[in-house]
Amino acid sequence: MQIAENDDFGSEEITLFADLILPVPVAQLFTYRVPRVINPFIKNGARVVVPFGKNRVVTGVVAKIHQTPPTKYQARYIAELLDDEPLVTPYQIELFHWIADYYLCTVGEVLNVALPSGLKITSQSKIQYNPDFEYYDLLTEEEANLLEEIKKYQSLTYEEVEKRVGATNINHIIKSLIGKRAIILFEEVKEKYKPKVLKKVKLNGRFETRENLMELIAQLDKFPKQQEIIMSYVSQVPIQNVPYSNRAGLEKSFFTQNEAFSDSALSTLIKKGTLEEFEVTVSRFADVAPDFSEGTNIHLTTAQQRAFDEIITQFQSKDTVLLHGVTGSGKTEVYINLAQQVLASGSQVLFLLPEIALTTQIVVRLKKVFGDKLGIYHSKFSDNERVEVWKGVVSGQFQLVVGVRSAIFLPFDSLGLIIVDEEHESSYKQYDPAPRYHARDVAIVAAQRQQAKVLLGSATPALESYYQALNGRYGFVQLLERYGKANLPEFVLIDTKKERKSKKMKFEFSSVLINELQEALNRNEQSIVFQNRRGYSSYLQCEECGWIGECENCAVSLTYHQKDAELRCHYCGHKEKVPKLCPGCSSTKVRTVGFGTEKLEDQLKIFFPTARIARMDLDTTRAKNAYKEMIEDIEQGNVDILVGTQMISKGLDFENVSTVGVFDADRMIHFPDLRSAERAFQLITQVSGRAGRRADRKGRVLIQTGNPSQKILQKIITNDYIGMYEEEIKERENFKYPPFTRLIKLTVKHFDQTTALQSAQKLTQLLLEKMGEDRVLGPQPPLVERIRNRFLFDILIKLEREKVNFRAAKAFILEKVTDILTDKTLKGTDVTIDVDCL
DNA sequence: TCCTGGGTCCAA
DNA sequence: TGGACCCAGGAT
Q1: Are residues A748 and A803 both part of a single domain?
Q2: Is the CB of A169 under 7 A from strand B?
Q3: Average pLDDT over residues A119-146
Q4: Which of A653, A715, A740, A823 is least buried, going by the fewest C-beta atoms within 10 A?
């Protein structure tokens, strides 16, 4: 830290205070006094270390610096400043506050999801020997013994102390040692981020001249192993022709990982100084090199160009534009051109995608165009990788970031454009830990604050977005022509009831579908089979007594996974072995009911024994690169039939896929949820979009259903988005659902069912007093009424957009929820608040 | 009498 | 959230 002389801050005299965000779930900032020596250096967004409570030390982020001393208490001093440059930008602090405020959570919680854990401000207590301690006479024998143990280690947690010493009940000794200042309690605050370093070796500079090098080699005649190493170094590094190349050296692993070289000879050379060892910091993303061979200017078709121009025009009067483009219309090219234009103007671009692993193909294309400027932010990335993207955005290395919903929290300072692709996707909404935010909505707010524009793109927009586009709040651009004149696929509805009657069904497959798959195989084309349920079958049931395998923690049936002969709960992850006999009546007639991807895969292997069949779902893609490898396999034509869950519905682009089979459409349509029809439309349209992406042949989509005359299916097969929209929006209006209202869902949880219900009822009562029966619905048990042993009750609050003051209503709700949480007769009750829960 | 577990409160 | 502090009840 350099001390500025003559800075005009006038720092020496002023007393500053800092309001800090601390990692505690308390909805307030904490004011600390800034020591004068760091006055010139402290900045909003920097991390600091502060004492908190009696014996604790925590890290926090500076949210505000001011000169107003607190009146009700004495501010304590900040202990240490961790960052010279702010880690969090002022823009981010504002955005975090907005999110906390809007979604009813604490800023600390927002910070928790926003920061990669390598930068996070955690607080895990550790104890450490106090090196300044000298009053040994004050210690009891017990204390002295324990202190000796603790001295041996750098630092220990409470549990570690117990383990090392092999005794329990030592907390009181630790406590008294702390009291006597023999040991100190501290929170781990050091940065966990480790840059990736590469160990390299280079030849001592002396040998860069030809004569010296020859002489060295001659000298090593007596040490053939060492000579061999030098010779291969010279052959790898063209030191004689390009002397400069020696500076870059050669990776040490080149020698250590090749058995032909002797490790001891290498270390001797290093010890003698003939070779010098050094380390370089490398980016974890260095392996994907930019490829300009295709040129950066992607040529747009006439239709794409028109959409592009319209978007630019609309941006002049609107901050948000919705691009409605059918599947395969080439929205990506439009995005890329827009991004290039924004980047050229010097602004940053954020490109949001749902679950990025699912769209590696897009990432590869972006990487080709944008090269090193592109940062990738993804949930499967390690923490260090995320910290690198974070720092890359701060340093300006990444002008463009493609990422999942949490990428919205990155420290941009001059955003020009946010693209939200597949904006209708539900994975943009975070459900479980707070903040329960929607990345698309946060993107719109974030853009406003940076004077940036937002482009929402989808083949099947969310009803809310389409509504805003029609009523003029958003700009609206359509791209209704497939890229390269490819046709939209042809749809066939297969009546499974009829087929079953005439005994044409083979297991879950209709004869029509089997024939089409066979024909596709004959033509050497690829097929996709879609079933939005993983595992082997839905559940196990006993034919004799009706027993069904259920989770012991949640109110759901267990899914049968044949591969591991296991029953698994898809809610809490509970696993158990498949029982040999029915646990209810010891009968052997336990059968599987329903079907998932695993079962379809098995059946396909029976129908088409020679076909190459692959399955893509959560179970087969857990490993970091499994997804990527599978995609490459399909691209190279090593797969004939791909079975998968919704994972295969998004953004994949395989030219050779001609046939798509859709199973269980009825379950999607009749799922008891307000959005089921909209979701079914979106999902089936998205999957069908995988078919027939070539101009020279038409794809076929076969949908198996028990009732082909359902309205929504007709809309799907005629690709009638607008028809679907009109139907659904009418319902929304009738029943007062978004976009005509805003919904807030309160979930009341308790281990005891009666108390859960009591709490929920009491909360409902409190809310009804002011809000009225039209606005408060419930309490009712949700679809899955018990999760991880806790009973749930939902209360749904509907607020009209015009009539209700949203802020005031939320404040009221928060107040009543707090009443319940602090009610002593309802101990153990937990309530979560989900704003805009749909 | 000491120890432990549970509950409550509070942090600047 | 974590920890300090207090109280009650069990082990010693």
Answers
A1: yes
A2: yes
A3: 68
A4: A823
